[in-house]
Target: Ig-like domain-containing protein
Amino acid sequence: MVASVVVFLTMAILSGYCAGLEVLPPGPVNGTLGGNVFFKTTINPTTLSAIVWTFGDTPVIIVDFLSSEGPVTGEGYVGRIRLDNSTGSLELLKLTIADNGEYRVILTESDLMYLSNTSLNVYETVSGATITITPNPPIIEGGSVTLTCDVAGFNITREWMKDGHPVSSGDDIILSEDKRVLSIKKRTDSGEYLCRVSNHVSSENASDTVNVIYGPDGMEIKGPNEIEVGQKFTLTCSAYSNPPTSYTWMHNETEIPGHSPEFAKEKSEHSDSGDYTCTATNDVTGNKTSVVHKLSVKGKVNGLSVVVITGTVIIVLLVVEVAVSVAVYFIKKNGVFSITAGNRQYRLCFHIDLNWSEKGPGYISKAP
Ligand SMILES: *[C@@H]1O[C@H](CO)[C@@H](O)[C@H](O)[C@H]1NC(C)=O
Ligand SMILES: *[C@@H]1O[C@H](CO)[C@@H](O)[C@H](O)[C@H]1NC(C)=O
Ligand SMILES: *[C@@H]1O[C@H](CO)[C@@H](O)[C@H](O)[C@H]1NC(C)=O
Ligand SMILES: *[C@@H]1O[C@H](CO)[C@@H](O)[C@H](O)[C@H]1NC(C)=O
Ligand SMILES: *[C@@H]1O[C@H](CO)[C@@H](O)[C@H](O)[C@H]1NC(C)=O
Ligand SMILES: *[C@@H]1O[C@H](CO)[C@@H](O)[C@H](O)[C@H]1NC(C)=O
Ligand SMILES: *[C@@H]1O[C@H](CO)[C@@H](O)[C@H](O)[C@H]1NC(C)=O
Model:
């Protein structure tokens, strides 16, 4: 059978009988790996006495059909073809890369012979594109982080985007030559990454999000260092951190309840002076950073009034002392005051000394 086909082919090619009678549309025909292609002839259904399909330059028989005998399928094509014996069209199934190449068909219809050829390109569609990020989250700033874009398929080109903008190698981002591996390290590299893979016949996207954990750092407390008693004051603590930090405050050694970045007081007191410590905590890493702010509450207004009050008290005491001493002088014969309060009587006794500059102790004795 094979020998007869070769003779047949040679005859057909040499004869020139069918020159110009193309039965295949201009190619090439494109197929995808694992898929099917249909080599459809341009003739209307008719009775064909012979159909031969061959592949390659040194022709390999795909199928050899004689109307008297039926189809004989070539080695390697069993179960992979479907032949339409009325048009000579051939369907080739489960394409492999090895199917790339040139296909010829010879059709015989009574005493007419058609000879045509075309070529097939088999492309592999890209599939299963993925981005793998190492290490696993949480991704802590300072370590090396890589994003690897993998996909099945041939002749693949890759393109990276971050937050919708093309990525190229730079100071902190390094893209490998084949663009498969992207290396990042900074907090500003957080974002949505997309790897677009494509070849002649298909394309696919893979995307993933990188969240770089950092901080707290760059801490500061904003607020006054010196205020006067009674003034309102506000201290505001800030830090760079991902995730956003939680804050705690201490005044001197005492913790202030709450987790606000702000500490405020409507009316300051002397005791509000001292060291204010703000501590920021990164809840993912547990890292803590503290910063101290000194506040001094000056007592100008209050100081003056203390002097005034003290002065007044001293004068009042002096007046009382003089008055008491004078009174005592005049009643020194008795030397006792009696005071009745409720059913109890109190006697106030003085030791009297006529030398005014030297006062002895007074005492109160309780009467029964
Ligand atoms: C196959 O692809 C080529 C280019 O890649 C194109 O010129 C041709 O028209 C395609 N064939 C068919 C049948 O679509
Ligand atoms: C041609 O194809 C038809 C339909 O598939 C089938 O019934 C017939 O048996 C085939 N002829 C030969 C000679 O194989
Ligand atoms: C058909 O074969 C001829 C001669 O081998 C070649 O020049 C031509 O490019 C082929 N046509 C197709 C569509 O492959
Ligand atoms: C890969 O690309 C090259 C050149 O671009 C091309 O010659 C070759 O046929 C392609 N291979 C596949 C399997 O697509
Ligand atoms: C893949 O990404 C590219 C570039 O961002 C976009 O133009 C395209 O629409 C995306 N395709 C799909 C299927 O999401
Ligand atoms: C957390 O603290 C450790 C030890 O102090 C330090 O090495 C690391 O860089 C810190 N991490 C962050 C994200 O600041
Ligand atoms: C905190 O310390 C400052 C300075 O040592 C002091 O003046 C202030 O009274 C202290 N306040 C409290 C509430 O401990």
The CA atoms of residues 303 and 330 lie 41 Å apart. The pocket of 2-acetamido-2-deoxy-beta-D-glucopyranose (ligand 3) is lined by residues 27, 102, 117-119 (CB under 6 Å). The chain is about 10% helix and 45% strand. The helical segments are 2-15, 300-330.
